[in-house]
Amino acid sequence: MTVPDEGVIYLDTTVVIYAVELHQRYRPLLAPLWRDARLGRLMLVTSELTLLEALVTPIRAGNTRLQRGYDRMLCCSCVVARPISRAVLRLGAELRAAAPPLRTPDAIHVATAQLESCTTFLTNDRRLRGVPGLPTLLLDDLDAV
Predict the structure, then answer these.
(1) In what order do the strands lie in the sheet with 120-123?
(2) From CA 106, how far away is CA 98, in angstroms rounded?
(3) If I label 52, which of 16, 19, 27, 66 is the partner at 20 to 30 A Cα–Cα?
(4) Closest by CA position to 84, among listed 46, 45, 49, 121
(5) CA nearest to 34, candidates 54, 49, 18, 56
(6) Are 5 and 35 contacting, i.e. CB atoms less than 8 angstroms apart?
(7) Is the pTM of this model over 0.70?
(8) CATH superfamily assigned to domain 7-144
(9) What 3-state DSSP class applies to 62?
């Protein structure tokens, strides 16, 4: 199994963190994704919530280099960061009310992916695997192949 090379791919926060921090285990798996996005073969989408989630550790550590890396990734690259709209919040609430219940940040990510008609939700969070209507792909599953 490989990362899709077409469609609209949602990037969960962990994927953005692995990319910006050049995580050695996941870097080779993600390289084709960035290449295909730059070539216009696929679209990469995330929520603006990703910026908040990703910046916490670098801010605590005073790591301005990583902070700038996240800003560049989510503001100036081939990743489209979608705002947390009323529609996202409404769908997120519906998702949290359904079984299995999601945490609020996860519900925002899933709702954003669904409203953007994403063909794949790329993450490493196994809890998201059981969300109905969410075509989830775990990076660890790719690594195992």
Answers:
(1) 79-82, 42-47, 7-11, 120-123, 136-138
(2) 13
(3) 27
(4) 49
(5) 18
(6) no
(7) yes
(8) 5'-nuclease (3.40.50.1010)
(9) coil
Tokens at 72, concatenated: 């560049």
d(CA 17, CA 111) in angstroms, rounded, equals 20
Q: Where are the domains of the chain?
A: 7-144
Cα separation, 69 vs 61, in Å, equals 14
Identify residue 15 by its one-letter amino acid code: V
